Amino acid sequence: MLSYGWLGVPKRKFGVSISDSLAESLDNLCSVLGVDRSSIVERAIGNLIVEYSHHLVSHECLALLAIVCSEEENIQDILRDVRDIDVTQIHNHRGNKCTQVIIASGPSDKIAELYSKLNSIENCRVKYMALHDI
Q1: Residue ranges of the chain that CATH labels 3.30.70.1150
Q2: In 10 A of CB 3, how many CB atoms?
Q3: Which of 13, 26, 72, 118 has the fewest Cβ atoms surrounding its Cβ within 10 A?
Q4: Topology of 2-53 in CATH?
């Protein structure tokens, strides 16, 4: 079913099933930000599509990887094995948390491989942002 938003942009309504705890977190976020669920879900889906469709076509890529680990883990080992990618990194420790910000440029498939390796490290959280569209 199509409807129109406040700017006249066509909108399609559809149902999504999520866990109660996720729905509660979404409602809390909406309340704090003063927006409706549809706005947050639309933006999240849009960001997810941009992030993942970025990987569909091989290209020269510029990306930012933010990594937070409970300790340094083996990030440096992974970075030492990087080939065909230029890497600039910022490294910081606060308490028992190791935080690294990596700016990577090179072939998109190699950066995707780096992201996968970093993302597979236990006790680490990795955020990826393609910088080509900023």
Answers
A1: 60-130
A2: 9
A3: 13
A4: Arc Repressor Mutant (1.10.1220)
Q: Residues 94, 78, 108, 70: what is their CA dihedral angle, to the nearest 10 degrees?
A: -30
Over the stretch 50-101, which tens digit does the pLDDT of each residue have? 777 777 888 899 999 999 998 766 788 888 888 889 999 999 999 889 899 9
As assigned by CATH, the class of the 60-130 domain is alpha beta
For the chain, residues classed under CATH 1.10.1220 are: 2-53
For the entire predicted model, the pTM comes to 0.69
Q: CA-CA distance, 79 to 85, in Å (whole number)?
A: 10
Q: What is the mean pLDDT of residues 37-46?
A: 90
pLDDT one-digit tens code per residue, 53-64: 777 888 899 999
CA-to-CA dists, residue 62 to 66, 70, 98, 103, 106, angstroms: 14, 27, 23, 7, 7
Residue with tokens 């890497």: 87
Q: How many helices, marked H, and strands, marked E, lie in the chain?
A: 4, 6
